[in-house]
Amino acid sequence: MVPANQSYADVSTFKLSPVRDIAPIGMQMTSCCTQQVVSTITGACIQWTNPVTGTAIHVHLVVTDDAETDLTCCNSNGNAGCSPLYPACCECNCPCADITSAQIFRECLSRPLVLRKPITQDSIANNDLGALHASNLIRAMGNLQGANGGSLGYVANFHGDAPGPCGAFSCCPHGSSLEFLPWHRLYTVQMDTELRTQSTGVTSSTPAQPFTPATLPYWDWTTNSAGTGPMTALPDLVSSPTIVDPMTLTVITNPYFEGFVPGTGGSTVRNPLAILFNNPSFLSRVLASLSEPTFNQFSNQLVDPHNDIHWMTGGTGGSMSGTTYAAYDPIFYLHHNMIDCVWAVFQYLTPGIDPLPATQALLENPFGNAVENPQEITARNYIVANTLDYENNLCYTYGLTGNPFLRSLDINSNGIVFGGMNLSQIRDRVNKVGDTEHYYGGFFLQSFDTSYRITFNICHYQAGQSVRCFPGGGLTVFGGRGERAYVNDIVTKVDITDKLNENFLTVSEINSFTIEIENVETADGKEIAKQELFQPVNVLRYTKNSANFGVYSTRDLFTVNFGLENKNPPQMSILEGTRVKLVQTEESTIPAQFYEANNREAYINCDRTDSKLLTSDFEEPSLGLHYYFLGSDQCSDITRVLFNVYNAPRNDMIAT
Fold this sequence. Notes:
With 656 residues, the protein is an alpha+beta fold. It has 15 helices and 28 strands. It has a 5-stranded mixed β-sheet. A 5-stranded mixed β-sheet has the order 23-28-27-25-26. A 3-stranded mixed β-sheet has the order 3-6-7, with no helix packed on it.
């Protein structure tokens, strides 16, 4: 129990870490944040059976839903099963005697470790979540909207509205591969906690039953319900204006179909694009992101399918298509839970490959703003470093374990995570990504206060002469009114390997290619001048463990093509060990000469007298800044490129 000299306010600041005690008879118990909370009107202690080992343990915390705001500890009632042999089951971090308000009760309900489950297009019809969980989800979301005039309340305002809780700019850092994942991890917890602390209709006459928190699932958009191919429809949880409550079997308004947007007089809209469905690239792109050697690269690549899901789910004029209104649509949170699940898999497969220390020290707002954020759990963890251990600090888990409530991570777990695969199958597919070389178009994302999609061509050159251009693909950039500016120095890649093969283009000393932007269109059908975008680069990811890789098993070659119409980005940040090739696309009677400037001033002025002539076709720049330019009469961002070579924890170090 809580010591008498400590208030609930004191206890609420404690870090809820897992405590696993061994009872005299060898049974394992858990503490507040590490077990399923069980709801009952009777207040009896509940026996829970471990589904993996079959061992029975007694859960210490027994709560009602919302009809009675009290918690009952095992040693307070003398019910059967509350033996002194189970002392740990009676230590309540959420103190029984101190439940004096609905807000305190809500916070206690936010503490248990909860399991986020996947949903696909037929999950409600197939009862994948279980009738009680699905019913609680539907009723809790309906109650949340009912309490907020049909909208999702203050949480939706956290994301994209500007001006808003973060001042003149929106809070969401979509332009930063450093903060994108940690910020949205906190954001999903914010909504999850709001939802599962809503009333779900339990009253004093409701029969005793397991309390299944209304925990938001994640939308596995990589597969259909059978796990045999791409999805062909939106999840049935969100796709219809009405839905059957699985517990009462009555038809009710579906709160996941839309959400009201304050200030607009209307609700969210979805106009899904056909390309959203039967699209196998979502799974392949997620697997490719998981194969990246560093956190920054992983995050930047995961942004690619993330942006497309937004763009394609919203469609023309749809709410999900831009940052401004996306978070008012309930499907937003199912989507971002999926993104977070992929990060959790990356963390498991590559332990320790985390954001750099400087990033981990960043503070994520508005979660740390006591005026804007009423929740204790996200306010306590609003530093990036605290988001990494999502189980201990944020109290949720995924099916990455044999038994999620004991947190025993297990590569042999049979639980389906995404794509119809369990964790070991995902690992095996990820390990195969680097078995062959891949070519990419490399893009440096920019802010235009809107979402937009880039369509590009691949242009074939033979011995410096233009041969032909053919369609290469597209890339979506997610943005909106008042967006935080994109940090555009790390490349986002689009795999074009299949496009090259389909068009019989084999890259060699004679045959080369460039990535050339065809057009840029916003979510509302307007055009952005393609000359406003930075010039893409070619990226070659060598076959894993190729010769001369040194201490790394993964290595890239960046080819920068000079002589095209688009300017280069202000800076390109590349990982240590990356090779660089500078080329002039069109053949000239005068061979191209490239220089590395000794300082920034020489670089700005393209001063050949204070620079070194490059004599090799390939460079492998060392850590730090490197200033390159083409020796020509022109000196501009078209003929200059600045590389910043950085080091980061990586998962591809070769033992020596």
